[in-house]
Amino acid sequence: MRVCCGLTRHLELAKRTDLYGSPVIVGRWDDHVIAASEEALPFGVAPGMPLRQAEHLCPQATFLSPDPEAAARLRELISSALYDLAPVVEVKVEGIAWLDVSGVVRPGDSIREARRRLRTAIGREPRLGVGPGPFSARVAATRARPGRVVQVEDARAFLAPLPSRELALDTEQLERLDLLGLRTLGAVAAIGPRELESQLGREGRHAVLLARGAEPDELTPWRPPQFSSAHRQFEPPIEDREALLFVSRALCGDLADELGLRGAGAKRVRMRLVYESGDPEERSSIVRHPLSSAAELFGLIGGWIKEWQPRAPITELWIELPVLETAGRRQLRLWAGNDGTSEEVAAAVERLQERHGALVVLKPRPAFISSPLSDQRFEWVSS
Amino acid sequence: MQATQLEHAISTIRVRFGSQALTRAGELPPPQPWPSSTPLDRLSGIEGLPRGRLTLLTGSGTSGKLTLALNLLAAATREFAHAVVIDPRGDFDPWSLSPFDPELSSLSVVRLDPEPSGEAATALARAGAGFILLMGEIPEPWLGPLEASANRSGTVLVGVVDAPGRALAHASSLSLGFSRIDWVWDRGELVGLRTITRCLKNRVAPPLGESELEIRYPLGPQLPFSTPVIEVPLEKAEMECVSAVV
User: Fold this and answer.
1) Closest partner CB to B127 (pick from A246, A344, A383)
2) Most buried residue, A257, A296, B66, B233, by most Cβ within 10 Å?
3) Hey, of A338, A361, A375, which one would you mutate to test binding to chain B, going by the most B CBs within 10 A of its CB?
């Protein structure tokens, strides 16, 4: 595993870029400090301490109430921005972004682009670290200057001189380590996992493995939300069916492009028309095979629009794909020449057979090729 | 002033109907040909048959156009996952295709009356069938949808008709006329014909070109033809084209 870690501000702080450069403390009243800006740290403020104590230490700081929803939205934004740079991407609200670049052909390009995108999203240069696992990469990133990378080849050797408080242990456990004389990660790594497990419980064993550079933690890959939609507002409202068809085709094209990037297909399709007056109307369908191309989507949507009888001028058109599925098996298209998938053509054939009978589409199968009678040479099989 | 109004009209169309509604000709993608490995590739001017457009093979009976079309169909069955024959007359015989070494598993034959055959061709083109051979005329109302569907999916459309109607000739993007000039005999047996193939209409390249082709009839399934269509070198091969038929 080769992991790149981008270290930014806590996302609770990053959502207020206007307060960059001044001490900011995020926390709920009568509770603990969730995040503190770098400018507040020299005053002795630290995440986890009571907010009253932080206020006493740094009264000039700006105090913000946490907004977990906004931070989560920012996290999603950063995750989607980094998604195409590495096979596995994980972003935490604490301001840590991990990219597993093992297997990436040009990891340097990915790391450089990740730095640029993080800077765009947060508004400040991230600190970057590259190591054999998430822990060593994060520790390396904390030692990097903004916009620079610290690269770790031998995690154990790199971690050995660092203080044991780098481990994610609570205050009591860290004090216990101190009492045991285990003040560096090298000292923690030197004792056996069972010995420390007997002192600190499971966290002790985990700490030894981390200190040895064994990287027991796996990244939790971020996946894009399985939902997509596109819509268009009409000003002035339209009544023309052809115009509606034209717009829906363009929207289907946009959605297909997005599905293609995600490698997904729509299992369910919903179309909604908002009228100038009256309640909106909608129609939805669950399809047997996930739709991923613009032609497939428009085949369904266009059919609905053609038979729709609008009650009033239309102000808005929504096409929603509320259920997405992986469209990996559609890569079979690669083997099928340059034409459509078997499913699309099979669906068209089924529709023709429903309308005109089963014998309208036939496939020839060799029977008695050498027969002088043309009827005996091939048998016709319903397609 | 006029330029401003024009820009305003263009932006209105794009805002109302989407960015793809109006495209400058210079931004359009070039036509992607399907190389059929026959002399028709040279006559089309784009080194292949145009995708998403209708190619017509026309000419009187026994001029070799159906043999050439079967050659194209067999090549398409090997290359595409779906090759479809729209057969309104119901007289397509796969045995006539056998000498060209087709892949029958990807061949489908649609046998419908002329009226619904247009609907079938349109549906299959929209679904993305790779190659469609039209063995007859398509009703005029279906020509527009067929062309549009094929254009979106990139289907190669080939029509074989003796004398195309005005609508079909108008809908085609490439029209090649065949006229027989001689028979080819071998040891007293008729084995083929020589035909002049002219580019009558070409919307995808300058409509130039004329070739003399020697087309060998298939002699039976045991003797597959490797090159059933032979192009005869002709001094006047690059003659000026006859103007469009319509």
Assistant:
1) A344
2) A296
3) A338
Contact (CB<8Å) B107/A356 = no
* A367 touching B (Cβ < 8 Å): no
CA distances from A382 to A347, A379, B115 (A): 14, 10, 21
**Average pLDDT, whole number, for chain A?**
84
Contacts of A295 in chain B (CB under 8 A): 126-128, 152-153
Q: Does B20 touch chain A (CB under 8 A)?
A: yes
pLDDT tens sequence across B173-215: 999 999 998 888 888 888 888 888 888 998 888 877 788 888 8
Extended beta strands in A278-375, E state: 281-291, 314-326, 361-366
Pairing of strands A62-64, A24-27: parallel
Tell me if chain B has a CB within 8 Å of the CB of A250. yes
Interface contact A237, partner B, CB < 8 A: no
Does the beta-carbon distance from A340 to B221 stay under 8 Å?
no
Residues sharing a CB contact under 8 Å with residue B227, sequence separation 6 or more, in sequence order: none
The structure tokens listed for A293 are: 């191309």
- The H or E element containing residue B50 is strand B49-50
Can you give the pTM of this predicted structure? Answer: 0.46
The confidence score (pLDDT) of residue B246 equals 26
Q: Which residues of A103-115 are buried (b: 16+ CB within 10 A; e: fewer)?
A: ebeebeebbeebb
3-class secondary structure, B125: helix
CB A250 within 8 A of CB B19: yes
pLDDT band at A330 (very low <50, low <70, confident <90, very high): very low
Write the ipTM: 0.76
Confidence of residue A335 (pLDDT cuts 50, 70, 90): very low
Q: Is A332 on the interface with B (CB under 8 A)?
A: no
**CB contact residues (below 8 A), chain A span 141-170, against chain B:** none
Domains defined for chain A, CATH in brackets: 3-151 (3.40.1170.60), 155-211 (1.10.150.20), 228-334 (3.30.1490.100), 341-382 (no CATH)
Pick from A217-221, A326-330, A353-357, B52-56 the range whose average pLDDT is largest.
B52-56
Q: Tokens in use for A286?
A: 């669950």
How far is it, in rounded angstroms, from Cα A130 to Cα A102? 11
- Work out how many CB contacts closer than 8 A connect A with B: 118
Q: Write the CATH number of the domain with boundaries B34-232.
A: 3.40.50.300
pLDDT(A285) > 70 = yes
Q: Please state the domain extents for chain B.
A: 34-232
Which among B16, B82, B94 has CB closest to A345? B82
